[in-house]
Structures
1.
Amino acid sequence: MPPAVGCDETGKSGTAPMRHGNDQSDGGAAAADQNLGIESGIDKMTPAVTSNDSINLDGNGEHKVACDNNQRISKEIEDLRAELDEDVKQLGYCEANQKPRAELALKVKDMQGLRKQSEEMQLNNDGMRKQNDLLQAKSDSMVKQNKDLQAKNDDLVKKNEELRTNVDRMGKRNEELQAKKTNMCKWNLEMQLNNDGMRKQNDLLQAKSDGMAKQNKELQAKNDDLVKENDELRTNIEKMGKWNGELQAKNGSLTQWNQELQAKNDGLKKQNEELQAKNDGLTKKIEELQAKNVSLVKQNEDLHANNDCMCKWNGKLQTKNCALTKRN
């Protein structure tokens, strides 16, 4: 700016009615005064620029403040330029007017300081704009990341609901299984009690079977004796043909009595079959003992019936034999 002013002064000096030598001396003094004024103006403006540099701007609000300061400084520079142009026009660059020239130098110096401050503010503004772009990129990244996290959160919430539904279903299934387990335990206890009862009944049947076997042996021995006596009686019966007719008549009553015994035998067989039906679920040994018991009971009943018949018949024959013996 000062050299431009010097050129303007040289151009104006050709038209101004002043001394040329004085103009050069005055111009040199003015230039020196201008340089001193510019240096003092720079010294005055340096703290302001340093203070502006020391401000740590952060965020959109501070960036807006920096832009406002930049616009304000630019407006002040334009105002100073307008005032400078107006002063130059009014003064006409007269070498005699040193005071306006010094004021002009101060204004130029202030304008240079403001220009420098404006450039520094522009650099700060560019840095803030770059930082703002980085923050905006980070904000966009955070928004995208937030959306991804929200989507993942929604998926987790959905999975959590599905897991909760599965847990409720499993809990209900567990309760059903627990109820079934309770019923199975109860049924198992009932079966155990039934098994104990059947085992006790089996023991009783075994004891009865042993008693029947022992009784069968005794009856078999008695039957052998009766067979022997029967042979002897049969010999006597063959000798007593006539008396046999009378005995045949009495045999009808014995037949009726035999039918009654047969009816009782049928009742015993029916009862034995019921016991056999209940005893089917027991072990193979019980079934074998039951089968043997059935055969032994049947044989015992037959032997018992035959024995009773033979005893009565033998008694009657014995009585008649005694009578016949007395008659003979």
2.
Amino acid sequence: MTKTTEKQQLEIMSHKLVPFHMIISDKERDELLQKIDFTPDQLPKILNTDPVSVSIGAKPGQILKIIRKSRTAKEAVAYRLVVESNE
């Protein structure tokens, strides 16, 4: 990875319109799926080639927790399953 690419990835994560993303642990994943009674495939998807996925090193099969700022709820939490891109 070039310095330019690394810099662009850091800039993506610090942009004001990009919400906070993090990879959840296996324990958190199991607790989440049990709590919401979903299988991973039922979660919304995000490609492993998405700039944010690449920036945080997300791999297919992992789940991302996304925390958005909200005027009404202060924070809105969403989850995405990282899937392999066909590219």
3.
Amino acid sequence: MEAKHAPLKKVRVADTVVQACYAHAFSTEQEEVMGLLLGEICVAKDSDPYSDVGSDDFRSSPILYKEANVWDSWVVQRSVRRSDRVETAPEVLSGASEEAERCTEVVGTHTRVIGWYHSHPRITPYPSHVDLRSQLSYQMLESGWVGLIFSVFYCDSTQRNATSIHCFRTGPGETHEMVELEVVPISQMPLKSPPVIDITYRLLQTFRTEVEAAVELVRQRCGGMADAVEAARGLQDAQFYTLNKLIAEPALLYLLRANDELETKVVALENRLRISK
């Protein structure tokens, strides 16, 4: 088997990426969200103990497979926003590639776009037929393409809220194949420096762009009718208010508290340094 066709066998995801993806997934209960995964894909060799069994010159033959390390994510603008489906425009990949180049400079390790993630609000994390077809289209470009699904706002059989992550690939005949997933500390990734993950800024910027694009679409389809445009802008203001309450204000509160804690630690360290002298 050629390396370019080797299947994905295992994915290691940094804990910081999981936190960022969950923050994105929990930002809306009504629609699926989507983003891209950044990192590296490595080709490895395994041996097949059943190759040439029974022959005089029995020996194991190498089998190629791929493993992925994911250390960053990128929130993308959606072209389709529905509760059971999400899509993005092809040109979005170019923007993510630019982010991968910037990430390379920060972490000191070559970084590229290697996968995608999306949310399943109120349903299980298993991929739909649409998900499998989307995954297959990506795998035609990169056989080791990573697919992650984050299930949120879902109640299990015990009526308890449950969240889960599912890693998958599309097998022969558009079948669903699970891929081994391991969440590891960012410190265990092969990086010289950790990436800067500013999920709050990315979410606000992307959502604002999506809402403004939706208002512009209404204006174009209605021929600039005043009532339709006014209604769309009213909805825009309501969504901006929700984003502010749901994302911006909690982030600001967290930063203020974190700043107070850091200032306290700085004072304590300065006192210890003064005493040691």
